[in-house]
């Protein structure tokens, strides 16, 4: 490893979800996440820059000499205050992904001047320790015949303006470059179990820990105890939100914020004692495809009211 990439080791941390019991409910339980396998190789096309910046965040002046030919060594997971868990190389330098690349199949669209600013990370010599699924590592054949490291299919790069271990100066450049999470997705700071975001159409609505919109069912009841009338096949489209601790929420009204046990034995969260759900038709954070479905499903305001529901 070239000494210009100074060594550092950063350790990933994990967060625990706490149980909650309040006035109109009972208890709660945590949730878990999974991982995926990806392909390893694919041919890529060339790239001819047409403007000084190339749309890739490259400088109009000559970029510094990159260290892109250096192996990543043993990948690590670092905890960043703004981005959450990010992947670094063995020297602690952040690895990035590019929105104009593809993961299925893996393909790099960063060549020429772009690759001077964003040196591709070689596949050779890369390994993982804890925090990253070994099966997510792969490689893609670049236009020059070299093998580039991929994570979950996404080609990996360093950024020449990261001067020291822990730097994330490449985050958000040109709106297309992002630090990489251990899953291969874009890194993002972990959200609380429940929080509030501003939706352009709906205003302030509640989202879960994954940023997915939370909904209420008008046929449910809140008093004197929470009652969910979404059962059986309904739950396949409208999964329940598992209970979270009141301390693991932000911006949500605390009154009636509690978990209860459903008749089927599952645990479900409520806001103002109203049962809450996500929607299987929402595929990404920010989706609100469940809004108004059947005239009975609505996004939830921070005080637990159904947003946009008929009065």
TrEMBL record:
One Pfam family in the UniProt entry: Lipoprotein_15
Signal peptide: 1-25
Record field: compositional bias (Polar residues): 27-39
Database matches in InterPro entries: Lipoprotein_repeat, SCO0930-like
Keywords: Lipoprotein, Signal
Name of the protein this chain belongs to: SCO0930 family lipoprotein
Keyword Lipoprotein (UniProt): yes
Organism: Streptomyces chiangmaiensis
Keyword Aminoacyl-tRNA synthetase in annotation: no
PROSITE patterns linked: PROKAR_LIPOPROTEIN (PS51257)
Region of interest: Disordered: 27-73, 288-311
